[in-house]
Amino acid sequence: MIPVRVGNSILDHDHAELSCLLEDLHALWINRCGLRALLAGLIRFEDALCAHFAIEEAILGGCGYPGLAHHKGQHRAFLGEVATFRKALAEGNHPEDGRPLHGFDIASRLSDLLYAHELVEDSSYIPALTVLPDVPEDVIRQRLSPLVEEATQLKTAPQPVLHAADAPALTPQATHALTRLTREMAGGGLKPEQVAADFLPYWVEQTPLSC
Ligand SMILES: [Fe+2]
Ligand SMILES: [Fe+2]
């Protein structure tokens, strides 16, 4: 599917990756790679989707998007559907009619869901993204530096200490968002300048004191 661009480089990067992960899922089915591979592919998609939603919600919260509560509800419903597929796939059954679950069913249904969500729900917040919080540059630099440090550590050590300075104040969802950003920086998918420009102003606006 064609990822929808919303004009924020972090979110556009995520949308492109989610599309790629669904294409991978289709490919796993077409190439008859088996249930375990299909399940692993679905879990990769679910993990990326969950982290994307956490990042998106942090950004929307930081720009004061009025439709945030509704948007969060759509995210939870989407994740619920993915979890249902994951469980059904793990058991090898279709949750509704008892016929064997087909890899094609999953990849197609998730593509439809993702495309509809990006086209309708995500496109609705585009105007709100133009309201960039006014955060001093030194504050952004201060918040960026531990993330870059952690990304650097990730290149050499698989399990660095996670956001040590912020850890006590982080919710699991925030941890998920920051972990994804640092991993993407470590892997070269995102540049620190992108995180500084398109994530941190919204994040700092939401979490001004301790994280
Ligand atoms: Fe969304
Ligand atoms: Fe999105």
TrEMBL record:
* Residue ranges of domain Hemerythrin-like in the record: 8-129
Source organism lineage?
Answer: Bacteria, Pseudomonadati, Pseudomonadota, Alphaproteobacteria, Rhodospirillales
Q: What is this protein called?
A: Hemerythrin-like metal-binding protein
Key words, A-Z: Iron, Metal-binding
Establish whether keyword Iron is in the entry. Answer: yes
What protein family does this chain belong to? Belongs to the hemerythrin family.
Mention any Pfam family matching this sequence: Hemerythrin
This entry's Gene Ontology molecular function terms read: metal ion binding
What CDD domains does the entry give? Hemerythrin
